[in-house]
Amino acid sequence: MDEExxxxxxxxxxxxxxxxxxxxxxxxxxxxQRCGLRLAVLEARERWGGRMLGGSSPAGIRVDLGxxxxxxxxxxxxxxxxxxxxxxxxxxxxxxxxxxxxxxFHRAGVEPDFNASLLFLRPAELGLPAAELADAxxxxxxxxxxxxxxxxxxxxxxxxxxxxxxLSVSHxxxxxxAGALARYPLAWLGRLGGSGGFEPHESSxxxxxxxxxxxxxxxxxxxxxxxGGIAQVAERLAADLAGRILLRSPVRAIHQNAGGVTVTLAxxxxxxxxAVVVAIPPPLRLAxxxxxxxxxxxxxxxxxxxxxxxxxxxxxxxxxxxxEQGLNGLGIGNLSTLELTVDSSPPDGPGILAGFIAGERAxxxxxxxxxxxxxxxxxxxxxxxxxxxxxxxxxVLHNWNAEPWSGGAFTSFLNPGAWTTYGPVxxxxxxxxxxxxxxxxxxxxxxxxxxxxxxxxxxxxxxxxLGGSRSC
Length: 472
Ligand SMILES: Cc1cc2nc3c(=O)[nH]c(=O)nc-3n(C[C@H](O)[C@H](O)[C@H](O)COP(=O)(O)OP(=O)(O)OC[C@H]3O[C@@H](n4cnc5c(N)ncnc54)[C@H](O)[C@@H]3O)c2cc1C
Fold this sequence. Notes:
This protein has 472 residues and is an alpha/beta fold. It contains 14 helices and 19 strands.
């Protein structure tokens, strides 16, 4: 990414302008380029990839600072990784994971059926009170029945949608009479399931159930890792689009009329095209000035679509020492800072624990000094994995809330009432403007797989708009 690439001439009228060079925009542009359309990609940052971001630890080890996993059923993403010639390896789940619950240390093996587990772990092995486990199972089963009732393409059409969309996850749990242990997995799904980064009082039970209907945790979304990092996928896609990506080009305005689209950049430069694809996270779409104005129901939806709150943590060690005690690095529980760790060590490489600080914990953590931030993370790593964990070779803390062109992570979520009031406009194009970005996907929104699906769907819509078809 040393060299910035520039589309040929600013004055030229192109077929398509793509706003955002994240995975979704890159995929969309790749498809449209394959169809012979003349295009440019306008990217606000000085780099491409968006939430797909590679980096090096201070000791020079390649890591993913953004997303890192491919799921067992993420067929498009897996095919893309393979087509890029990248090597993938399965996430290490052999051995016991650890739940720390109210200060108690509970280890158990991984239950392959997520719906029968207590957050991945075999409940019977945890040594927790039988009544609390039974309560957790009862609530999980009720939630699963709800998930099965939510139409993935139209959650506002679920039975009792009006009621469920106005009940926060917390209130729904109250109504079930759920105890603390039973509440925890649903709170965890909001904070760290693919939806990522919201608290149980911030969204509705309808939204949480929808996230599991379209992106089920049971389908193992954290199945595969990529040697050298998955962000190499963005590098490869960008290389194939050489000459068509314009970096440091934040889009400020999109004007459309019968003749075409004019896109204005922050420096006042104008670009012209027949159609435009906007492949950026929903809250950031509001920062663009549209004329004609977006319909009020679209603005209503976007105003109720905040980003989740997320910090990615990577702790690197000389070796995955936890495996020597039969542990697999999967850490969950109600600790003060970290929400999760997962063994992300490459084969024959250093030991790497990937973790997250999510939701309000991430918000509070940001108020700490640098030293306190590290101490808080190290204390939790030590609680799960012992004294060796307190002295990593490197500790990488990447705060996605501090990235203005993401605004948080993993993805956006909807506030209570938004689906049933505004939902039907969710994916609707506006004239010559087509939406992409993972949040626009019908399947696996919030994930790379969703970003690819939405990018391909946008390419279809654009080619239809321009009078062709994508099979071109
Ligand atoms: C910490 C973290 C962990 C994650 N873990 C996983 C995982 O393991 N597996 C998985 O599948 N997914 C994961 N995700 C989610 C995944 O990274 C995203 O779903 C995916 O990368 C989104 O791609 P996108 O193209 O839709 O959006 P983005 O990647 O956000 O791309 C949007 C692009 O638009 C640009 N932009 C924004 N506004 C403007 C503007 N006005 N003008 C021009 N450009 C603009 C941005 O700079 C950005 O480059 C994770 C995300 C994070 C942050």
